[in-house]
């Protein structure tokens, strides 16, 4: 028993039209091939002559299918890391996010700087600003900015600018 007036669902309607159109195209291709085979009495010639029909009707569908598969594979590979992949001058820097705070891996920062940041200096600046995740030390983004402000090397200055622009400010804008 129906309850009330049926609601129009545009997405469902569009999917129905697309599916119906695909079946009609496939049916037209199969029917054309069968008719051509019946007329010529030769499957090879029928397939060769109707290949254009197959190409015109099914090529856009196959291109869309392969495009969707590529997007799905990319999503399946990266959805866990979405928003957490950072790279500074070719060096991948692991970032963990916890309670809207971002923590950067000290080992990765050491590769980016050319020398590892001094853990003792970082702990002296803020004891709670250094933590361990997955058996790696991570430093809080604010503490890293303080640490890099004390460094005068060109690499440290460019890393500080990069952290401010790509890690620190986007995290603060989400608060």
Order of helices and strands: HHEEEHHEEHH
Helix content: 55-70%
| Mean pLDDT across all amino acids | 81
User: What gyration radius follows from the Cα positions, in whole Å?
Assistant: 29 Å
Summarize the biggest pleated sheet: 5 strands, antiparallel
Oligomeric state: single chain
Number of DSSP strands? Answer: 5
Q: Could you tell me the strand content as a percent range?
A: 5-15%
Distance between the termini: 48 Å
**Low-pLDDT ranges:** none
What class, by secondary structure content?
alpha+beta
In the residues, how many domains can be counted? 2
Report what the structure shows.
- By secondary structure, the protein is α+β, with helices and mostly antiparallel strands.
- It folds into 2 domains: 10-78; 85-173, no CATH class.
- The chain is 63% helix and 15% strand.
- The protein is built from 6 helices and 5 strands.
- The protein has helices at 10-40, 43-78, 106-113, 119-125, 141-149, 154-173, and strands at residues 85-88, 91-98, 101-105, 130-133, 136-140.
- The protein has a 5-stranded antiparallel sheet with strand order 1-2-3-5-4.
- The radius of gyration is 29 Å and the shape is elongated.
- 14% of the residues are buried.
List the SSEs and their pairings.
Elements: H1 10-40, H2 43-78, E1 85-88, E2 91-98, E3 101-105, H3 106-113, H4 119-125, E4 130-133, E5 136-140, H5 141-149, H6 154-173
Antiparallel strand pairs: 1-2, 2-3, 3-5, 4-5
Helix pairs in contact: 1-2, 5-6
